[in-house]
Specification:
By secondary structure, the chain is an alpha+beta fold. 48% of the residues lie in helices and 20% in strands. The chain has two domains: 73 residues; 113 residues, Alpha-Beta Plaits (2-Layer Sandwich). Strands 1, 2, 3, 4, 5 and 6 form a six-stranded antiparallel sheet that branches. Helix 3 runs antiparallel to helix 4.
């Protein structure tokens, strides 16, 4: 008997003991294949998925280890950079006035304009704009003066011990259109000046670092 002559549908499993040996071999092969397939489905596939998951975790942990190793190797450099940044931040915070020093700073700005020949028509501190740890305080000004007088005023404000910035400026000559951004007008021509300055107040006054000392150092510049 060869395999082409076998038709398992003609065999009764209850009489498997009486089957020809070829049929028994085929049946045994089918049983083994079924057992192996079921074992793979119920056991091996789960193990392979777990192995794949563990492999991905290992790669992630390896990458984290490499990154932490790099940070550890440069730890002293990072500490030095952090110390320098803290020092720079302290210097900048000292340039932010506290609430009690703000009136003096506004006087400094106004007096700087007057010393440089500006004739103020308007000097108006606007409402504060709270931010993270400081508040921005715009100052709207309108004045008459020459181009050089305004330039000297801006330079004088920049030299104050507190941070004051020029946000915008419009200079208008007699009968001329307004010009923005510092375009030079006639040197001796009287200009109508509209500008916005901005200073900043340190919000956390309890931890302001030595603010009074810095103000004292700059007092002699008035």
């Amino acid at each position: 008997m060869n395999l082409s002559e076998i038709n398992l549908s003609n065999f009764d499993l209850r009489e498997a003991g009486d089957w020809p040996w070829v049929a028994k071999i085929v049946l045994a092969a089918l049983v083994i294949a079924a057992v192996l397939g079921a074992g793979y489905y119920f056991f091996t596939s789960d193990r392979l998925e777990e192995l794949d998951r563990i492999t991905r975790e290992e790669q992630q942990l390896r990458q984290e280890f490499i990154e932490k190793q790099r940070v550890a190797a440069n730890l002293e450099s990072f500490r030095a950079q952090l110390k320098q940044m803290e020092s720079e931040l302290e210097v900048m915070l000292r340039q932010l006035p506290t609430g009690t020093e703000m009136p003096d700073l506004l006087d400094d700005v106004s007096n700087t304009g007057k010393r440089n020949g500006l004739d103020f028509e308007l000097f108006k501190p606007e409402a504060e704009q709270p931010r993270d740890f400081y508040a921005a305080k715009p100052i709207t000004i309108k004045a008459q003066g020459t181009y050089h007088q305004f330039g000297a005023f801006v330079s004088g404000v920049a030299a104050l011990p507190r941070i004051v910035t020029l946000e915008s400026a419009t200079l208008t000559g007699a009968g001329d259109k307004a010009v923005k951004g510092g375009k030079k007008a006639g040197d001796a021509e009287s200009l109508s000046i509209q500008a916005t300055l901005q200073t900043y107040r340190y919000m956390d006054e309890a931890s302001a670092p030595a603010a009074g000392q810095q103000k004292g150092k700059g007092a002699g510049k008035k």
